[in-house]
Design the sequence.
């Protein structure tokens, strides 16, 4: 299993497209947080990183499926899937190795944003005037959002042997779960199940984490979505 | 009371365990498989198309089994089932006593497999790829390293060993695939068309390699190159439209039920009755040559010469005709 994990992580960095994905992610976040006047922290005047936490999930809906799209789809297409399936690794171990690799890459992509934290700590007046718990709650929330999107991306990759289709599935399901459910609540006819829909959406749990409180309920929600997605992936693969 | 009761219970349990233990061992001993790979009545449908229909054969240790058939006959499907990549509708494959349906992962440790299109990771270096595969099979780092250094010359990869897989020609990729199949030193080796894309020199080398490794392994290879079968296989299984149409030792197949065919040619016109005591006789190409079907070729040759001498005939040639595998193949698979 470790071999497959390292193959995925190394494969990402031995390829130009891996650096491209990371580069685009960090550049777009940098622009949003520091440059674009509408969202820039510097224009905002308060020592907090709200734009980072509001906009990263948007970027994630594209970034994470881009990382995961080839993980199963490409192996299927090139036939190397046969190598994995006829090896002693079970389907669940294959999925788990690929998932943890995706998760590692997401954390690696997020790590540079800690520099933003340091910058804001330095820029505060007095220095260090920042809601530390709020920042780290949100940051862990971001990692969890990434973890959920990764499981969705893996599912998308298992749905098809075309990378682009896998990408679109990943974006679509992530989008639906993060923004779609909350947006649906605003429809008048949905009011009887509005609360349920709201509680099912990722953004609801993410926002409650950004208050700086890591609640068991939220963690349980994220974990169960991940388990559900990976479980579905396993079922899909075994049926084919 | 409770203590003595429970200890009594325990003791009787131990006694019972002791009692059943030897029998278990006996059972295991009787289950030790003599054969290495056993394909049992495999059936597989793709939609309405019957890909495999009650396919059964056995491959034994130390022999090379050639799996022949026209394109689309079900060779690859059988091999994919044997390696656990796809599931059969019915039937089973048993490797060293382990069922591939019940213990697919244990079986995969015993089996080395070169798939049909030889899938590889093009972005990897050869050593990197082999290290990855060894890791999948749970090999330790040190033994893996020495195994790779052993396999690279064995598969003739020394010159190209530093290259990435996408820089290799087809023949070299095939060698990498072969090294991949051998890396965990499997008991059973399944090669799906191992020699496609090789040049004539490479063909000879790879065949030699296959022959070498087959001495203490079970080796199954599919192909449609008949010379290859004649060169390396001990046993031949021919499959057509999902059914086994022939399954025999190569020498039996070539000599038609153990009988050999002799062709005698002379300068003079021959008569069949002169040779009637030797066996089945017919004229071959002209009335100056006859064809005999005999069980003992050497004895028949002696007698033939005697008859020639008695009748004062001039010998042109005596040939022992072996059946051409290609014609057997045509005959069997086109009916």
Sequence:
């Amino acid at each position: 299993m470790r071999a497959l994990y390292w193959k995925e992580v190394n494969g990402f960095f031995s390829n130009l497209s891996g650096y491209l994905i990371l580069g685009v992610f960090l550049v777009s976040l940098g622009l949003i947080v520091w440059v674009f006047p509408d969202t820039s922290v510097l224009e905002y005047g308060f020592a907090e990183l709200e734009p980072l936490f509001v906009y990263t999930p948007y970027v994630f809906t594209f970034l994470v499926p881009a990382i995961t799209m080839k993980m199963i789809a490409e192996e299927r297409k090139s036939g190397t899937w046969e190598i994995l399936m006829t090896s002693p690794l079970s389907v669940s171990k294959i999925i788990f190795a690929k998932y943890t690799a995706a998760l590692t890459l997401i954390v690696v992509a997020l790590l540079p944003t800690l520099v933003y934290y340091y910058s804001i700590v330095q820029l505060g007046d007095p220095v260090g005037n920042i809601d530390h718990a709020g920042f780290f709650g949100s940051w862990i929330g971001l990692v969890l959002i990434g973890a959920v999107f990764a499981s969705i991306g893996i599912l998308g990759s298992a749905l098809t042997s075309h990378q682009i289709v896998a990408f679109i599935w990943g974006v679509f399901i992530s989008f639906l779960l993060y923004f779609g459910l909350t947006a649906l609540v605003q429809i008048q006819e949905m009011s009887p199940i509005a609360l349920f829909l709201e509680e099912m959406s990722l953004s609801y749990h993410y926002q409650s984490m950004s208050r700086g409180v890591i609640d068991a309920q939220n963690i349980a929600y994220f974990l169960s979505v991940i388990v559900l997605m990976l479980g579905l992936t396993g079922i899909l693969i075994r049926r084919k | 009371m409770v203590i003595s009761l429970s200890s009594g219970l325990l003791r009787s349990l131990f006694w019972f365990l002791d009692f059943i233990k030897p029998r278990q061992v006996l059972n295991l001993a009787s289950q030790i498989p003599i054969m290495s790979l056993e394909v049992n009545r495999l059936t597989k449908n793709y939609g309405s198309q019957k890909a495999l229909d009650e396919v059964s054969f056995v491959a034994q240790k130390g022999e090379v089994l050639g799996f022949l058939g026209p394109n689309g006959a079900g060779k690859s499907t059988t091999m994919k089932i044997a390696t656990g990549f796809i599931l059969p509708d019915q039937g089973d494959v048993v490797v060293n006593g382990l069922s591939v349906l019940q213990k697919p992962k244990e079986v995969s440790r015993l089996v080395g497999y070169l798939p049909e299109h030889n899938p590889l990771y093009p972005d990897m270096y050869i050593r990197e790829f082999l290290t990855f595969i060894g890791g999948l099979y749970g090999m330790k780092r040190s033994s893996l390293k020495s195994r790779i250094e052993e396999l690279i010359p064995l598969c003739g990869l020394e010159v190209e060993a530093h290259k990435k897989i996408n820089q290799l020609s087809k023949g070299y990729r095939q060698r990498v695939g072969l090294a991949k199949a051998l890396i965990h030193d499997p008991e059973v080796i399944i090669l799906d068309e191992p020699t496609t894309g090789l040049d004539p020199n490479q063909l000879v080398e790879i065949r030699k390699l296959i022959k070498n490794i087959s001495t203490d392994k079970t080796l199954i290879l599919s192909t449609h190159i008949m010379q290859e079968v004649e060169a390396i296989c001990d046993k031949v299984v021919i499959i057509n439209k999902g059914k086994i149409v022939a399954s025999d030792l190569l020498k039996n197949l070539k000599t038609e039920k153990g009988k050999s065919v002799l062709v005698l040619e002379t300068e003079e016109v021959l008569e069949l009755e002169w040779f009637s005591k030797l066996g089945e006789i017919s004229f071959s190409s002209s009335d100056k040559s006859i064809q005999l079907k005999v069980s003992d070729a050497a004895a028949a040759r002696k007698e033939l010469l005697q008859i020639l001498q008695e009748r004062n005939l001039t010998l042109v040639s005596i040939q022992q005709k072996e059946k051409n595998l290609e014609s057997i193949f045509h005959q069997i698979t086109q009916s």
Remarks:
- Chain A touches chain B through 21 residues (CB under 8 Å).
